[in-house]
Amino acid sequence: MTQTIGELLETAADRALPVVRGIDDARLGDRTPCAEYDVRALLNHLFLVVVNFRALAAREDVDFTQEPDFVADGDWRGRFGDETARLVKAWSVPGVEEGTTGRMGLPARTVGLMVLGDLTVHAWDLARAAGGDFVPDRSVLDEVGPGLAAMAPQAREMKVFGEPFPVPESATAFERLLAVTGRDPGWTPGGTPGGTAGATGS
After folding, report:
1. How does DSSP classify residue 4?
2. 38 φ, ψ to 5°?
3. What is the CB neighbour count within 10 angstroms for residue 25?
4. What pTM did the predictor assign?
5. How many other CB atoms are there within 10 angstroms of residue 74's CB atom?
6. Which long-range contacts link 45-49 to residues 24+ away (Cβ below 8 Å)?
7. Residues 143-184 pLDDT 10s
8. Region for 132 from its dihedrals, namely left if φ exceeds 0, alpha if ψ lies in -120 to 50, beta otherwise
9. What CA–CA distance (Å, rounded) separates 8 from 23?
10. Where does residue 164 rank: exposed (0-12), middle (13-18), buried (19+ CB within 10 A)?
11. CB distance 52 to 159 below 8 Å
12. Which element (helix H / strand E) includes 100?
């Protein structure tokens, strides 16, 4: 049975929260797999994604052109937990996946899958920036993988994804997902700069 976006987001948030909460303030200036973002900038971007996609669930207007400094809040780790809980709640409202939402009039479930992809991929970005690793729940990966692959051509036209990163046939499903967004699944903090901002939802 297909899981709802709310259920999938709750699972994804449970995996992402420990990553965010484990980030030390001393690492905020470190580089990430997203070449244009350091850890602080990527956290702020992810905060904006979570806040705006909660609004999209409620059919409210959003603005992705402004990225406030959420990390300036001393309790940003706790706030991230609060905001993701609100995101899950918003996408758990009965009927939320029906119809369309956003300026592009996309199917609501497609929009929900976008934020699911952002939460998953950026959790990996942040984990890797800290020298660790991140593996999403299989149920999330099963939904996000095909969804991002289908959106990839348009995302590249919009400069949201980079060109696919070459991976071997032995690559895992998650490594293939990362590669579709233009990321090097083998990226490490000490490696060469590269990667893209990934799915932004803009």
Report:
1. P
2. -85, 180
3. 12
4. 0.91
5. 9
6. 45/122, 45/197, 45/200, 46/20, 46/80, 46/118, 46/119, 46/122, 46/126, 47/71, 47/76, 47/79, 47/80, 47/83, 49/115, 49/118, 49/119, 49/122, 49/200, 49/201
7. 999 988 888 888 888 788 889 999 999 999 999 999 999 999
8. beta
9. 24
10. middle
11. no
12. strand 100-101
Give yes or no for a contact between 136 and 18, defined as CB atoms under 8 angstroms apart. Answer: no
Cβ contact 108:139 at 8 Å: no
pLDDT band at 57 (very low <50, low <70, confident <90, very high): very high
Amino acid at 185: P
Instruction: Enumerate residues 6+ apart whose C-beta is below 8 A from 121.
Output: 177, 178, 181, 183, 198, 199
User: How long a stretch of residues is the chain?
Assistant: 202
| DSSP code for 98 | S
> Both tokens of residue 57?
């669930």
Return the structure tokens found at 15: 């995996």
H-run or E-run covering 106:
strand 106-107
**Which amino acid appears at position 165 of this protein?**
F
CB 122 within 8 A of CB 45: yes
Q: What are phi and psi of 171, to 5 degrees?
A: -60, 145
How far apart (Å, rounded) are the C-alpha atoms in residues 107 and 192?
Answer: 38
- As beta bridge partners, residue 100 has 107
The pLDDT of residue 199: 41
